[in-house]
Amino acid sequence: MIDDKDTIINAFRPIEQFFKIMDMASAEFDDNFARTYAEVGLALCTNYRTKVEQVFNSQDGENKNEQ
């Protein structure tokens, strides 16, 4: 189960990195438009990671109860 979680998170990592790059680039060029998109993207990435953790933690709990 942990391998599945890692696979999902690793598959999503390039998207997360893209938003981090946008955020850094916007600071260099004082681009509020790009910064806004980066902030939204990073918030979505955080929510996604939280949800993945919740799903896998609840499945781990179910598997332990079954044993």
How does the SSE layout of this entry go?
Layout: H1 2-29, H2 32-66
Helix pairs in contact: 1-2
Name a few traits of the molecule.
67 residues; mainly alpha; 2 helices
Short structural summary:
The protein has 67 residues and is mainly α.
Describe the protein in words.
The chain has one domain. The chain has two helices and no strands. 94% of the residues lie in helices and 0% in strands. The model has no long low-confidence stretch (mean pLDDT 85).
Quote the distance from N terminus to C terminus.
15 Å
Integer average pLDDT: 85
Largest sheet: none
The geometry reads as elongated
